[in-house]
Design a protein that fits this description.
The structure holds two protein chains of two kinds. Chain A is mainly alpha-helical. Chain A has one domain: Up-down Bundle (F1FO ATP Synthase), CATH 1.20.20. In chain A, helix 1 packs antiparallel against helix 3 and helix 2 packs antiparallel against helix 3. The two termini of chain A are 13 Å apart. In chain A, 21% of the residues are buried. Chain B has seven helices and two strands. Chain B has a two-stranded antiparallel ribbon with strand order 1-2. Chain B is globular. Classes of the chains: A mainly alpha, B mainly alpha. The interface between A and B is medium-sized, with 11 and 17 residues.
Chain lengths: 72, 232
């Protein structure tokens, strides 16, 4: 049990990378919109897509954490 | 905590014998059928009340949804996009309803868990999507044109481009499954730790409604983006 719990905790560390990625996507999106406000809608959807792809990595970590914790 | 993890797998609702094998119908399949029936009945009812002039409130909402799907297909897949509107629209409404159908659980005795928390459902949907992507490539470029895209900058990249057809559905399936499954587990833990409705409702609004609709939209958006890549 204890080793599986440590493994689950380590797996959730993937949120660190995802957080950095989401921050960078948001930064790029805001900068792009500030530079070219007329392209707002397409920039927003692209930034959104980048954030979502980053968020999926955090979800993978969470999933592995849950699976380890339940030992499915 | 233990009873939370008992709900992780899909429970078998009923089983029957077919050619000597036992066929188990589990909760996910059942809820998928319920969602399909709801959608078919709703669309049949809405179709009867469509009016060209003086549209009702519901018709305006439906037209707004159709307009979203039309624009999505047009911006991502160009002038070929119109052919994919039915598939993309069906995927959006099916996933949208399937992800938030867990809200019906307030009725006691009703075990309506979102079917997308079963990885088999999301894997099937991702496989259908990648078959549509491949078919769109074949249909609009021909077999030769599709093979030419594999060696686009140079022939060295061909294995990686082929591998994309495995990683794309894998990531589609795992993203949807992971999000819905994690939201489901978190909500069950919240329900078991704090059994007060007013405390858990904001979490439910985020994890059940917002996250479910968002993930349904993301699945359809990525599908149409992949289709757009294949047909351009």
């Amino acid at each position: 049990m204890s080793l599986a719990a440590i493994g689950a905790a380590v797996a959730v560390l993937s949120a660190v990378g995802a957080a950095i990625g989401i921050g960078m996507a948001a930064k790029g999106g805001t900068e792009g919109i500030a530079r070219q406000p007329e392209k707002e809608s397409s920039i927003r959807s692209l930034a959104f897509l980048g954030m979502v792809l980053c968020e999926a990595c955090a979800i993978y970590g969470l999933l592995i954490g849950i699976l380890l914790f339940t030992k499915v | 905590m233990e009873e939370v993890f008992e709900k992780v797998g899909s429970e078998v609702i009923f089983s029957f014998q077919l050619f000597g094998d036992t066929v188990n119908i589990n909760n996910a399949v059942f809820v998928c059928f319920i969602v399909s029936i709801i959608l078919i009945v709703l669309s049949a009812l809405l179709k009867r009340t469509l009016k060209a002039d003086n549209p009702g409130k519901i018709q305006v909402c439906v037209e707004w949804l159709v307009e979203i799907v039309n624009n999505l297909c047009k911006t991502s897949a160009g002038h070929h996009g119109k052919a994919f509107v039915p598939y993309i629209g069906t995927l959006l409404v099916f996933l949208g309803l399937a992800n938030i159908i867990g809200l019906l659980n307030f009725i006691p005795g009703l075990h309506m868990y979102p079917p997308t928390k079963d990885i088999n459902v999301t894997a099937t949907l991702a496989l259908i999507s990648i078959i549509v992507v491949l078919g769109a490539g074949f249909r609009y470029k021909g077999l030769k044109g599709w093979a030419k895209t594999l060696i686009d900058p140079m022939p060295v990249v061909a294995p990686f481009k082929l591998m994309e057809y495995i990683t794309k559905p894998l990531s589609l399936a795992l993203r949807l499954f992971g999000n819905v499954f994690a939201a489901f587990i978190i909500m069950e833990i919240i329900y078991s730790v704090v059994p007060v409705p007013f405390v858990s409702s904001p979490f439910s609004a985020y994890f059940d409604i917002f996250d479910g609709v968002l993930q349904a939209f993301i699945f359809t958006y990525l599908t149409i983006v992949y289709i757009g890549e294949a047909v351009e």
